[in-house]
Amino acid sequence: MGKVNVGIAGIGWWSGVLAAVIENCDTLDLRACYTRSKDKAATFAAKFNCQAVDSYEAMLALDDLDGVILTTPNSAHRAGAEAAARAGKHVFVEKPISNTLEDGRAMIAACEASGVVLAVGHSYRRHGALRHLRRLIDDGELGRVSLAEGVFSNDNGLKLKPGLWRSDPAEIPGGCLMQIGIHQIDNLLYLLGPVSDVQAYFNRLETEPDVEDVTAVLMRFESGAVGYVAADYISARRFTLAVHGTKANAYFDMDNDGLRLQRTGETKPLPVEYEPIDHLRAELEDFANAILTGAGPEIDGHRAMVPLAIVLAAGRSSAEGRSIALTELLPD
Predict the structure, then answer these.
(1) Domain 4-123+281-297 CATH superfamily
(2) Taking the chain, what is the end-to-end CA distance rounded to the nearest angstrom?
(3) Element of type H or E holding 96
(4) Average pLDDT of span 165-173
(5) Strands 258-263 and 248-253
(6) Which CATH architecture has domain 126-277+309-328?
(7) pLDDT in tens, 116-133
(8) Is 126:277 a contact under the CB 8 Å cutoff?
(9) 187, exposed or middle or buried, with CB in 10 Å at 0-12, 13-18, 19+?
């Protein structure tokens, strides 16, 4: 199996993280990079041994380029994806797929019309603990799942200053739920399946820019289970999951206790071993595999529309003070 040559558009902290991951991928090579700052592009190119190009159009014109990785602001995803599709290049875009359902649909249509892959970067579901937890659920080890909780917090909101795209409420509708909480929304979708409706509360307490820094959303799943996701942009880092079932509860703390299981009748949860997986490498190699084999990526454009719709429904719920059926946003 050959390698897929990709270019990264939009150079910042996260593009560097992904470029470092690509260096360890068996199926990807970083061919080129582009950002508006030539100095920044040159530094990035030297560090990751790729070509700095003068424009996004120049990147798309490279004959040996197979695909692009878009780490641009959310509002730029549509234009970047549509241009890549017109050039016959495959597209990997960071989450969320876009800020709006209209843009997401346009990206899907453009990539499908050109016959190119559209993959979206919801990576945490590929973490070894999440994969193992999904197997426990599928095998009936937890019994009937009734409740799931996902929390993602960090203090990045305390550092936000006006003038950055992450500080612009037009760029981040839903505030920290769009920026970090969407990861846990996707995790619960992966573990529990489709959602029927949501109820949410958003607030801004401490961030200097007008961005919601604390959010909570309740999700009712079609299975009857209830899920809860909280995102907090003004407190210490926490990434935890809890899944409750009639036979056992499972707990996952990414930074501390790993995966633990407490079976009914036991007094405390016990550690569970699982196979470690580099979730970022797994998502990028999934993108490459989709290109090389023709198989669809795990998170294509259609699947990525669901966590986006939940964030947007949560925002509507908080503003209007009512539960929002997901069919209000995704009637199909």
Answers:
(1) NAD(P)-binding Rossmann-like Domain (3.40.50.720)
(2) 37
(3) none
(4) 80
(5) antiparallel
(6) 2-Layer Sandwich (3.30)
(7) 999 999 999 999 999 999
(8) yes
(9) buried
